[in-house]
Specification:
The chain is mainly beta. The protein is about 5% helix and about 50% strand. The strands form 9 sheets. Strands 3-2-1-34 form a 4-stranded antiparallel β-sheet, with no helix packed on it. It has a 4-stranded antiparallel β-sheet with strand order 4-5-6-7, with no helix packed on it. The radius of gyration is 21 Å and the shape is globular. The N and C termini lie far apart (about 45 Å).
């Protein structure tokens, strides 16, 4: 019994040491990370640490720079958040110790990034200078610098960066009408596969949950570009071409986002650029099978984890609204007004609730997806992106 007690004591002391419990610092309470997340404070360079179980803010980390278009990915264990700032900063945040671990200015203008499937590499997509930089996820040391140079002396802004199996990253070149796939399986021998002429101005992209299809939305024309990554010889295929034909184009007030990737059964739901519609697509044929009229120009079109509902938010002047599509009935079944300037939504891992940020009302609302009741309201200054650690187990997030 004494030996057993001694072993337990040693194990406890080791845990304390690992969490920083020595040197005069109090150790944080032991806990997992599965119900944690962050809310981006857009105006003050702060990320707010949140817990989905208690629907509460449990801490904050300041001094993260310009977060006006920030995004976040997580380490495999969900402990570390990698924050990509608009000012080109990449910051590694320890969510248990609630502090910055490492931070570097890796570019002049950055709009997001991804983490490799094995959690070893973090990649940033950059506007200035155009390209992708890949870092060691533990040290943030530079592993690879991939300029998006599509002509001598000309670089493209990079968008739609996603992780693929095997330490690969796919991304789109907005100014070059191209998709590149970079293989980082051997960091000393980076291999790039280039697909040119994919369509005019790819503005964002996604990878399907099974890792098979990479799909880029096109801002310069109606339609999307798709690559079947499982094909022996992948090629670019155009889908949904001319979905706005016969209609006068509307001004686009905010670029839609594809990363939410709304899939329910065999159907995908995608925002139509500049239109008050959500496109419904059959994921076997990749043909349009319907449209759902909505209140405004959709920005995020996101499916509840079980696919039973799709939630949509909008650009100005309708950005105080959120609408819910019933995927069985193929129609709007509820409209909410959770606050001014709804910028982001995030479902809890099992989808019983959705967290919604309202920037101009300085609050985050937690809403039941069953009866649409507001379960909690959190005071957060100018909140924008909401990211839960459950993303760590999902491709393309």
């Amino acid at each position: 019994m004494k030996r057993r007690e001694w072993l337990l004591t040693v194990a406890s002391l080791s845990s304390l040491a690992a969490l920083g419990g020595f040197g005069g610092c109090a150790a944080p309470a032991l806990r997992g990370t599965g119900d944690l997340g962050v809310v981006v404070g857009r105006a003050n360079g702060t990320v707010y640490l949140i817990e989905t179980t208690t629907r509460s803010v449990i801490g904050e980390v300041q001094d993260l720079g310009d977060l006006s278009h920030a995004s976040v990915v997580f380490s495999r264990d969900g402990r570390y958040a990698y924050v990509f700032g608009r000012d080109g900063a990449l910051t590694m945040v320890d969510m248990l110790r609630q502090r910055i671990v490492r931070r570097l200015m890796q570019a002049g203008n950055s709009i997001g990034g991804a983490i490799s499937d094995d959690g070893a590499l973090v990649a940033a997509q950059n506007y200035t200078p155009g390209g992708v930089k890949v870092f060691d996820a533990h040290t943030l040391e530079l592993v690879a610098d991939v300029p998006a140079e599509h002509a001598p002396g000309k670089r493209s802004r990079v968008v739609g960066l996603v992780d693929l199996p095997g330490r690969r990253f796919a991304y789109s070149l907005f100014d070059a009408d191209a998709i590149w796939i970079t293989d980082c399986s051997d960091p000393k021998r980076i291999h790039i596969r280039k697909f040119d002429g994919i369509g005019h101005q790819p503005y964002d992209a996604l990878v399907t949950p099974d890792g098979r299809y990479y799909i880029a939305g096109l801002f310069g024309e109606d339609g999307l570009a798709m690559i079947d990554l499982w094909a022996e010889t992948p090629t670019v295929r155009r889908i949904l071409g001319g979905y706005g034909k016969g209609q006068a184009p509307l001004p686009v007030y905010k670029m839609p986002h594809l990363r939410g990737w709304a899939v329910a059964g065999r159907r995908a739901y995608l925002p139509a650029i500049g239109r008050h519609e959500v496109l419904v697509v059959d994921t076997d044929s990749w043909q349009e099978v319907g449209r759902v009229p909505v209140a405004g120009q959709p920005v995020f079109v996101m499916a509840r984890p079980d696919g039973r509902q799709v939630w949509v938010n909008f650009a100005v002047p309708d950005y105080h609204r959120v609408q819910v599509i019933d995927t069985q009935a193929q129609r709007i079944v509820h409209t909410l007004e959770p606050g001014k300037a709804v910028l982001h939504m995030e479902f809890t891992p099992r989808g019983e609730a959705v967290w919604i940020s309202s920037r101009d009302d300085n609050r985050v609302s937690v809403v039941s997806t069953e009866d649409f009741r507001t379960l909690a309201r959190l005071d957060v200054p100018a909140p924008s992106g909401i990211f839960f650690t459950s993303r760590a187990a999902r491709m393309g997030f």
